[in-house]
Structures are given as structure tokens and as C-alpha cells.
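Trying the structure run again after the queue cleared.
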Amino acid sequence: MEPISAGFTLVGLIIFVVTVVSIAQNPNHGAVGKFVWILVAFFLSLLGSILWLIFGRGRVTRARR
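Done. C-alpha cells:
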């Protein structure tokens, strides 16, 4: 494996892990919804992660100070 492709593989893996953690911690979806989003992120790779960021996270509430 070439060093450049290994770097892209590592970056893709990191993005996938961050996406799965984000999905698991999101309170806006139930277990089935989270499972479906993880499947989307897995099978669509980078596109699935982008879709999660755009459509899946739902409304993000900010903490009041």
C-alpha cells in the first residue's frame, strides 16, 4: 500500500469513528434511528458522514450561560 493511500484510509477511519460516536451520543434518535444512521455512514463512507452532519443531527441546542 502506498503511503498516500494509507493516509487517506486512516483519515476515513477517523471520520467514520467520530461520526459513529456523534450518532451514539445524539439524543434526537432512538435505537433504530441510530442503527440506520450508522449503516448509512458505513456504506456511504464520507458521503454518509456528511449526510449525518447536514440532516441527521437535528436541532442542536446551545447551553445558556
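The chain has one domain: 3-56. Worth checking whether this holds up in the mutant runs.
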